[in-house]
Structures are given as structure tokens and as C-alpha cells.
Amino acid sequence: MPLSLTVLGTASPHPGPDRPCSGYLLRGGGAEVWLDAGPGTFAELQRHTDPTRLTAIWISHLHADHSADLLSAVYAFAYGGLTPPAPIPVYAPVDCARRLAGFFGRPDVGFLSGILDFRPLYDGHTVQHWNLRLSARGVAHDAEAYGLRAECQGSVLAYSGDSGPCDALAELSSGADLFLCEAGIDRHGEGAQQVHLTPEEAGAYAKGTRELLITHVVRTLTREAAVGRAAAVFGGRTAAAYEGDTKTV
């Protein structure tokens, strides 16, 4: 199976009509991975696959617009008849399971163990599922956050997650066939912590990649404007991520 990315949602910081928050379905080498679980993405996931077939779930960070639909998955798997044949590995920052348990008012996470198998991410974390290799790098955000490099049979996809400028992004994207990158801010405020990328910064980090796919665009910009600004710096093939689109890497 070639490496492919299906866009489930791109909105920031909340979903809109026909536009869920961040989420993607990554397929390759026999594996299917739900990559980020923003609000609305579990419903979209079901348009493209049976969630019980998921090989893994990978969460870049625990802000709600990237993780809140894990609650929908828990309800589906525990109470909705979509029980997976074995607990699905969830690669996420260390506090993920505790936060989910807190929603149910439970002091421990054991009740989730029959459906989800939580495995904490860390900088340099690497795991192999069939012929799909997933490698995480810590990135610059206002929460514990990771970018992803996915490799399958010679094809490479890089994903920024949510990140400000940092060396890890250049390392993740180096030589990638497709770089899925956020453009979550229009301009950096003077003296403000830099926790998102401008379109120009996304374009700069894409240099050395074959194609740039802009996502998670700040609401003060159109996707078309963000693409234009990023492309002017990148100089290569640049497009916006749209819900329902599938890219073969």
C-alpha cells in the first residue's frame, strides 16, 4: 500500500460548518493511523475507514483542537458497538490518558485499557507498524508537542503539528516528499512567544521537500492567501489542505 494522507479536518481553533479541526488519516505499508483527533474528525474518519481497523492513533499535542475527538472514539469503542479487536495503540503526550479519564470522573485510566493502549511520546520516539515507520521530534509550542516524520517504502511525509520556528522542523522535513505544515499565525507579535508559523516560515521550512501542503491556517487569512505567501518563499509545489482530499506521497 503506498503512503497516502486523507484530510479529515484543518480548522483552528474550533470547528466550523463542514470543517472539523485538525485530523488526518495516514495510510501506508499495511497500516492505518489516525493522525490528530480534533473535534469532528472521528465522524470524518468513518467516511474513509472502519475505525476498528486503525493500526494506531498519533496525537501531536493535547490542545483540544488536536485531541478532543478521542472522547468520541472512547464512546464509540466502549459503548457504540465499534469495539476494536485489540486495544489500539495511542501515541500521545504523557498526560493524555489521565485527561480522558478525568472527563468520565474516573481517578484511574484502567477502564480505558480494553480499547486504547496509551504509549507516551518523547523526542526521538520511533515505532514501526508493518512497513510504516513513525518518528517524533519535540517542537516549539506552548504545550508538550511533537512533529512527525512518516516513512514507508522510500516515501516520506513530514508533519509539523503545531509549532513555532525551531530546528526540529527542518530535520523533520529534510528530503520529505510531502510536508504537511501549519500556518497558524499571520504575524508574530513583538515579544510574544512564537508557538505557530507564519506562511512565510512554513515556506522556508519546506525548502528541500518536494511538495508543501498548508494546513491549520489562522482564521484571519484565507487558505489561498496563506498558500500564496508560503509559495513565494518555498518556490515549489504548494497547495492547501481541504477536507476530503487524499494525497498519495
Structure in words:
This protein is of the alpha/beta class and 249 residues long. It has one domain: 4-Layer Sandwich (Metallo-beta-lactamase, Chain A). The chain is 22% helix and 29% strand. The protein has 7 helices and 14 strands. The chain has helices at residues 41-48, 64-67, 70-79, 96-103, 167-173, 199-205, 223-234, and strands at 4-9, 23-28, 31-37, 56-58, 88-92, 116-120, 126-129, 132-138, 146-152, 155-159, 178-182, 211-215, 237-240, 246-248. The strands form 2 sheets. Strands 6-5-4-3-2-1-14 form a 7-stranded mixed sheet. The chain has a 7-stranded mixed sheet with strand order 7-8-9-10-11-12-13, covered by helices on one side. A hairpin with a 2-residue loop joins strand 2 (23-28) and strand 3 (31-37). Helix 6 crosses helix 7 (223-234).
Question: What is this structure's SSE topology?
Answer:
Elements: E1 4-9, E2 23-28, E3 31-37, H1 41-48, E4 56-58, H2 64-67, H3 70-79, E5 88-92, H4 96-103, E6 116-120, E7 126-129, E8 132-138, E9 146-152, E10 155-159, H5 167-173, E11 178-182, H6 199-205, E12 211-215, H7 223-234, E13 237-240, E14 246-248
Parallel strand pairs: 3-4, 4-5, 5-6, 10-11, 11-12, 12-13
Antiparallel strand pairs: 1-2, 1-14, 2-3, 7-8, 8-9, 9-10
Helix pairs in contact: 6-7
